[in-house]
Amino acid sequence: MADAPLPCRRAHAVGTDAVPEWRAAFLAELAATSNVAASARHAGISPALAYQARRAEPGFYREWQEALCEGYDMLEMALLRRLREGEVKPAAGAKKGVRTFDNANALRLLAAHRESTARQRAVMENRDSDAILDAIDAKIEKMRERSLPALPAPGADTDQTDDQ
């Protein structure tokens, strides 16, 4: 994040097959900062070039979105840490700071994630129930195979004796 920006690179024609050198540095900084202008500066390009590449190249667009998601995940983890551990703030006239907790923001964050957490749990439970149902079906099929004798094929003559 505090690294010096990479030297300016030659312009790269957007849409060509070659992957420009600036891309890895740009995406890494975007993941770290969630800031396009800072990421472009770090990569030695203009923000306009980054946006142009994003519009022109679906693969770069996906990588951009992944970097932003990673950045927001890191931001969320930092916020969660602050909300869980509190912040030490200097008290007026005191030699030591006082640990404070932002309960209002903690409750807002919990409310915002309640739905996504419930959705994720439902997906996990659904996977578990599908596995259970598959195992039950397999056991029932094995029981059928063991208990039922082989049935003759449809239309096969089941009468072994000839009455004529």
From TrEMBL:
Report the source organism: Novosphingobium silvae
Where are the stretches annotated Disordered? 144-164
Q: What is this protein called?
A: Terminase small subunit
